[in-house]
Amino acid sequence: MKKVWSGIMGFTADGFPMIGNLSRATTGRTGTGEWIAAGFNGHGMDKCWLSGQAVARMALEEEVPSWLPSSFLISDERLGSCTLDAAADGIVSMFTDESSQL
């Protein structure tokens, strides 16, 4: 065997990682201590370390680091827009030549 890769790749409907605190509305639980850094869409090797640092800072009630793209932050609105239809549209758009107007 020359090469082996084993891992689970988490994808999101909008193509961006989800980083931050999960709301009570999302979890359905009373606590506020659930945090996430996931859905790196196959690009986690270069993003997960700093994302973990960002989540740790947020959990310690520090400011969201300025270097963290705001598009990575999780919100109820963002989660609501990440539907199965949105994911399917995103996948189809990767393989569609929009200039052909099909």
Automatic annotation (TrEMBL):
* Protein name in the entry: FAD dependent oxidoreductase domain-containing protein
What top-level branch of life does the organism fall under?
Answer: Eukaryota
- PANTHER family, per database record: DEPENDENT OXIDOREDUCTASE, PUTATIVE-RELATED, SARCOSINE DEHYDROGENASE-RELATED
Protein's organism: Fusarium duplospermum
GO CC, sorted alphabetically, is: cytoplasm
FAD dependent oxidoreductase domain location is 4-58
Biological classification of the source = Eukaryota, Fungi, Dikarya, Ascomycota, Pezizomycotina
Q: Which InterPro entries does this chain map to?
A: FAD-dep_OxRdtase (IPR006076), FAD/NAD-bd_sf (IPR036188)
